[in-house]
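Morning!

This is the sequence you dropped in the shared folder:
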Amino acid sequence: MPGIPRHLAGEVYTEALPGLDPAIYGSARMTPLGAFEVRSFASFTLTYTCGRLGLDDTGSLRVVLRFTADGGPLQMADPAAPNYVTASTSKGVPVRLAFDDTGSPRPWYQALTATVVKGYLAEGEELAIVIGDQRQGSPGMRIQSFCERPFTFKVMTDVCATGHFTPLAESPQIVVIPGPPAVWKAVLPTLRRPGESFRLGIKAEDIWGNPSDQVDRALRLEADRPVEGLPEALHFPPGQRALSVEGLVCREEGPLTITVSDAEGPLARSNPLVIRPGAEASFWGDMHGQSGESVGINTAEDYLIFARDLAFLDAVSHQANDFQITSPFWAQLNELSAAFHKDGAFLTLPGYEWSGNTGVGGDRNVYFRHEGRQIHRSSHALIADRSDIATDAVTARELFEALKDEDCLVYAHLGGRPANIAYAHDPRLETAMEIHSDWGSFEWIMDDCFRLGHRVGVVANSDGHKGRPGASYPGASQFGAYGGLTCFLMDALTRDALFDCLKRRRHYATTGNRLFLDLAVTAETPFARFAVDPIVAASEPEPCVTLGMGDIARSATGRVSLDYEVRALDGIVSVELLNASQVVARHAGFPAAALGARVRVLWRGAMTKGRGARAHWLGNARFQGATIQRLAQINGWNPDHPLGRPDERSVTWDAVTCGNFNGFDAWLAETPGAGLTIETNYGGAVIALEQIGLTPLRIPLGGLDLAIEVQRLPEEPLPTALAGCFETELAEGRDNPLWLRVHTEEGFVAWSSPVYLIP
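The structure's back. Tokens below.
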């Protein structure tokens, strides 16, 4: 099975080699090979046979795994625990083992090093490493949580004991395959005009979010409005990971959902699709992720296929770290983007992630309207070919200067290297801020924008490294959130329409669900709306009676109304109106009279900006005078860490947040005077249950918005649609960015791009 071609991978190894003949480095073989299910256990014996130079005293063999691999650290301390490793040599020379999860250059961060000591090995002699040694009780090596073809045990040698490691010509490979189906998904768009074509996507994911190929099911499809082209029955065959029903048409206005069932009953209900006339439809995209040529997995072609056929996206872009994009890979990315793009069906944008250090601007995502444009890298850190190094833009200011005449747009990205928008920002190019990804949620970037006077829209993406753009589960390592999505409001699915949408900020972001969100701003007198932000170019405003998402305008009155409509697959907890960073009004998805014996407990926030953001929560909640009748986890993305329930009054958790939140709902049997005690490694609280009501009770715990929140909810499922109107006063002498934040029952969040009412 082929891996990533060497010339496409941004990997750099030492230039000094013991020799040029591959035979001097030896060879490696491994048993067993084949296919292994995600999160299963296995034991692998990797046998290295020395080459012509042998392996000198204190020379080493190194087995490296990708940054993404989340099976857990290899260890030599506990022979009964997972991932136990042993090593031996054919002639009894001792071996010293060490593991370091950042012990090798990117993307092969995880390094197991076997060093021969007090002796040497000659040509033909062997060193055997058992990864997941089961002979003393270990269940074996834990396979990662996501599918990969191939998963490579990359083998490198330091035959001369110099500290320089050279990859072998070939390394052992296996295939990681999905598990059995656990959760069914039915996916529709969220806005279409009467008579406009759309598709239904159907898949069954395993418990780790991988589309399963272990399905053999007769399905029934039922819509709650007439849909032309919708079959009554389908067969989901084994070996297939998803089904798409194309060319569907609904001519009747109103919300539409489709239910997928089998002989035993409903399997999945789709997100709502609103059918209404208008200038725009909705198109969903994940415009940020990587494949195995850089720091992800699988190939760039696999990445695009998953986005189109398994995540049912309308739009996508591949965004590799620039310092890993070789010139041949940049050419291939442009070829793939052109080949996969089809107006009206699937939209791709060629681009890359400019990955400068935070001190010189931090991460930016660059999107070109057309293929064949010059890449301006932040550096050549992992690229051996320096022939085009003069084209580098090593600071964000240099990047914006290099792009000033290009037909492109830029997002500010908040993953490993947070974008430093105070250092550099070009409003002509940088139209959006990435507010959520696998790395977490980053509302603070909008706080910075408002403080600095930037007028931008909000987007969310996966920044996925696990080969699942558009449906990016975090797995079991350092990622703490499900990947985000952006809904683009456009008249057609074309590149020109997308660029116009981004320049006008006509889009909203979610933490991964596809909900319908609409808003309109009105006032007693007409607005003066600008076609282009006055910061970018001088222009005369035009009169307008209604503002939409992303508009920039002046108001002759100090008070405006904002009408909104939200529809989701799960219930609506709340819709909040924000003016800049302040919540000025909140509508619950239910009246106070509907509150019941359901208490929601959330823990949220981050430690800091950047790579140290992860907050690792160890906590417990104990109810006094109340017993738990039912418990539901919220945003429990890691199945290895379910909620603990020591007794009928207590809940424990081991969880990670990165600006987002986890939590639970507890349905209680209460007595008068009941209370709740929460203890975590970051702090806690003692709360009387009678204090908990419609508005969340918030306990700040420091860090970057670390907090516990507690509120009461109705016992029954919440309404899935909410419409209303906010009335709000405008502050004088400054921008009034009005935007919405939506919370849903299952723990998803959505943010509208702001409407900017400017002085």
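Headline: The first strand starts at residue 27 and ends at 31.

More detail when I'm at my desk.
O.
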